[in-house]
Write a structure and sequence with these properties.
- The protein has helices spanning 2-9, 30-39, 58-65, 81-93, 95-101, 111-131, 151-161, 178-185, 223-237, 244-265, 272-281, 289-300, 315-329, 348-355, 389-409, and strands at 21-26, 45-52, 72-77, 103-105, 141-146, 168-173, 187-189, 267-269, 282-286, 335-338, 382-384.
- The chain is α/β, with parallel strands linked by helices.
- A 5-stranded parallel sheet has the order 4-1-2-3-11, with helices on both faces. The protein has a 4-stranded parallel sheet with strand order 9-6-5-10, sandwiched between helices. Strands 7-8 form a two-stranded antiparallel sheet.
- It starts with a helix and ends with a helix.
């Protein structure tokens, strides 16, 4: 789509008069490769993808860095996904580079991504109706979403606001459980969980993020959670305001206050009435690595799953399924839909931990042919140090985009 609209805007333009778009994104795994494959070799488009060094799976990194097209730039950042995302936000907050480089976002910072994800929820709902096991006039449904950056959960929230009859949205987290702790306490705090003795300070990596078997969820500051907070603040603090404009301003000021506390103090807390509104639409579950491995193993042994062999979950989907099984045991009488998120072949360590002793299981059997040998291909990437990272990334973007323009227009 970027290339299509740029072609239309550049009709009749020559050389350096042509418009050029610079797409930037932070990824904890899958978004980066999807963006890269969608934009590689596209005319008048450059793409810069930042990912945390050593904190995506080796296959996910290979999917990104083995694409050697000149308009694709992979930046391996010394830090966590949160650090990568902070760099992206800082770039968008810089008016000069926005004006000169025409920045566009590719991950869930971009509202178009949320719009696309809304469709999952409606598709699942209509599929349930067609199955004949769900009566929309009497039955209730819960959606369970494994989450890190909160984008897919937010999409479900908007699906409900659009009329989807969802009783609750269940937020499933891994051991980086900042969202789960918020829903339990009303405090959003970047520290390790003390309820689990496995969460020791020295096990945490950059920024206090613990490395888990589900790396795409190893996130502490969820960008899209900030968007939900605005809607909650609008509901809670806007009722006594005069008019929509004043209500919106009040909600924005409250979210700014919370975000300032998070930046300065590393945490913020909300009033009970705010948490009550949050709990009206959401509940949460926390899943450990041990439980994740157990679920992958157990579901592989189920006899009623698709395929000739057992069904293999990736670790992120296994977190959602663990939460789903807990709810099923609680016998709420509701229909439960757990969203799946990734292909298991990208997460060999977790899958092999769970299934290595299973008779007939061979990891290579689930590896798509397109990915065989990918980790041995030549790579193209740049390393970025967190200290001074924004300055380095700005300089790199300006330099590389200029090179591309010269190659394209000369």
């Amino acid at each position: 789509m970027f290339e299509f609209f740029l072609d239309r805007r550049n009709v009749g333009k020559t050389r350096r008069d042509r418009e050029h778009l610079t797409v930037i994104g932070a990824t904890s795994g899958d978004t980066g490769s999807a963006a890269i494959y969608g934009l590689r070799s596209k005319k008048d488009v450059s793409v810069f993808i930042m990912y945390p060094t050593g904190k995506v799976s080796s296959l996910q990194e290979a999917q990104m860095t083995t694409v050697t097209d000149k308009n694709v730039h992979c930046l391996s950042v010394d830090g966590s996904f949160d650090d990568c995302q902070d760099l992206v936000k800082a770039l968008f907050a810089d008016p000069l580079i926005n004006e000169t480089q025409r920045l566009a976002a590719v991950n869930s910072i971009n509202w178009a991504r949320i719009l696309a994800q809304i469709t999952y929820y409606f598709a699942s709902y209509f599929s349930l109706i067609r199955s004949g096991t769900f009566d929309p006039s009497t039955d209730h449904i819960r959606f369970i979403t494994p989450t890190g950056n909160f984008g897919n959960v937010l999409a479900g929230y908007f699906a409900k606001r659009m009329g989807l009859p969802m009783s609750k949205s269940v937020i499933a987290t891994n051991e980086n459980d900042i969202l789960h702790r918020f829903w339990q306490t009303g405090v959003y705090k970047k520290h390790c969980s003390r309820v689990d003795p496995s969460m020791k300070e020295d096990e945490h990596g950059a920024g206090g993020v613990k490395e888990t078997l589900s790396p795409a969820m190893d996130i502490l500051v969820s960008s899209n959670f900030e968007r939900l907070l605005w809607f909650i603040a609008y509901n809670v603090y806007g009722s006594d305001r005069g008019g929509v404009r004043e209500t919106r301003r009040a909600a924005g000021m409250k979210v700014q206050e919370w975000q300032t506390d998070l930046k300065i103090k590393g945490e913020f807390s909300v009033e009970k009435k705010v948490l009550d509104v949050a709990n009206a639409d959401f509940t949460s579950e926390r899943v450990s690595d041990t439980e994740t491995v157990a679920t992958i193993h157990d579901i592989y042994g189920w006899s009623n799953t698709p395929g000739s062999k057992g069904y293999i979950l990736d670790p992120h989907s296994a977190i959602g399924m663990t939460a789903a099984l807990r709810l099923a045991e609680a016998a709420t009488g509701e229909h439960i839909v757990a969203l799946s998120t990734a292909h298991p072949a990208k997460f060999s360590h977790a899958v092999e931990l769970a299934l290595v002793k299973e008779k007939g299981f061979h990891f290579n059997d689930i590896l798509p042919s397109e990915l065989v040998g990918m980790e041995d291909l030549p790579r193209r990437l740049r390393y970025i140090q967190k200290k001074g990272g924004l300055r380095s990334v700005k300089a790199l973007i300006i330099e590389e985009v200029e090179k591309e323009k010269n190659r394209t227009y000369v």
